Amino acid sequence: MIPVSHYLFLSLALFIIGIVGVLTRRNVIIILMSVELILNAVNINLVAFSRLFGSVDGQIFALFIITDAAAEAAVGLGIIIAFFRNRETVLADEMDMLKW
Amino acid sequence: MLDKALFYFFGSLAIVSAILVVTRRSAVHSAIFLITALLATAGIFLQLHAEFLFIVQIILYAGGIMVLFVFVIMLVNLDVMLHQVRFTRQKWVALVLAVSLGSFAAFWIYRSGHGVALKSVLNIPAAPTTRLEPNTEMISQGLFHDYILPFELASILLLVAMIGAVVMAKKKV
Predict the structure, then answer these.
(1) Which of A61, B1, B16, B115 has the most CB atoms at less than 10 Å from its CB?
(2) Which residue is closest to B153 within chain A, CA to CA?
(3) What pLDDT band is residue B173 in, cutting at 50, 70 and 90?
(4) Å from B69 to nearest chain A CA?
(5) Which residues of A touch B101 (CB under 8 A)?
(6) What is residue B63's predicted lDDT score, i.e. its pLDDT?
(7) pLDDT tens for residues B98-142?
(8) Do B129 and A73 touch (CB under 8 A)?
(9) What is the DSSP string of chain B?
(10) Where are the beta strands (DSSP E) in chain A?
(11) What's the predicted TM-score (pTM) here?
(12) Smallest Cα distance from B126 to chain A, Å
């Protein structure tokens, strides 16, 4: 039996990689992909604890997180398409219309 | 034994492809490696006896959300991106901050798993897998009985997101 801390380490590694992606990439599409990575890392935690305690509640929470991820991806990609149509860019540091 | 082999195989696959997602230059390559990372996570779910989540992960993430991503990558202009700087100016600060956050959290997970706190929740023996079976039936029981209100809220959230996405992507607002 694998100790549950190994799942936590795996999830932590994915979470940190996702955070690095969100903070350092310029392409907004890849920033959204990194957000998906972060949500997945959280799901691994929930399912690992659900296995540890022998209760499906964690898996139900993971289902809700997947639903949220789908909603977030749909709205975020819609915003990207609308922005690209107006400004011809998908780079995060060129999206400064609200800066001044 | 097979359990361990599956976990370490899928775990290392997930980490390697996640690193490739945030470092590749082309967005299409990132999307492909994101699919690999999501499928590896699905393998972890299967290894954890969450069969329903395993199939939901494959159908919804790898089948639904990734198609959306690939469509948007095709819609926006890719060729310009290939010749531009990948990372923002604050990349080193962000990397140092994220790695220090990660090592801090890893230290505390290690400490509560192996160190002084032997009474920690991480050290209790795992429940028998039979308590999670039959998986789909138990999830539907929980979803439509204990969590019926969050379930309905999730459906409203999906409706709002659908309307929002259609309004955002319309030609004339």
Answers:
(1) A61
(2) A64
(3) low
(4) 7
(5) 16, 19
(6) 87
(7) 999 999 999 988 887 776 656 677 777 777 777 888 889 999 999
(8) no
(9) -HHHHHHHHHHHHHHHHHHHHHH-SSHHHHHHHHHHHHHHHHHHHHHTT-HHHHHHIIIIIIIIIHHHHHHHHHHS--TTGGGS--B-TTHHHHHHHHHHHHHHHHHHHHHHHHSS-TTSGGGSPPPPGGGG-SHHHHHHHIIIIITHHHHHHHHHHHHHHHHHHHHHH-S--
(10) none
(11) 0.91
(12) 4
**Complex ipTM above 0.95?**
no
Cβ <8 Å between B157 and A81:
no
B127 vs A52: CB contact, 8 Å cut-off?
yes
pLDDT band per the 50, 70, 90 thresholds, residue A90: confident
Using a CB-CB cut-off of 8 Å, the residues of chain B touching A79 are 168
Is the pLDDT higher at B171 or at B152?
Answer: B152
Cross-chain CB nearest to B15 (options A3, A14, A77): A14
**How many interface pairs between A and B have CB atoms less than 8 angstroms apart?**
242
**Alpha carbon distances (Å) from A69 to A46, A65, A76, B145, B166:** 15, 6, 10, 23, 17
CB nearest A71 (choices: B38, B99, B158): B158
Q: What percent of chain A clears pLDDT 90, i.e. is strictly above it?
A: 60
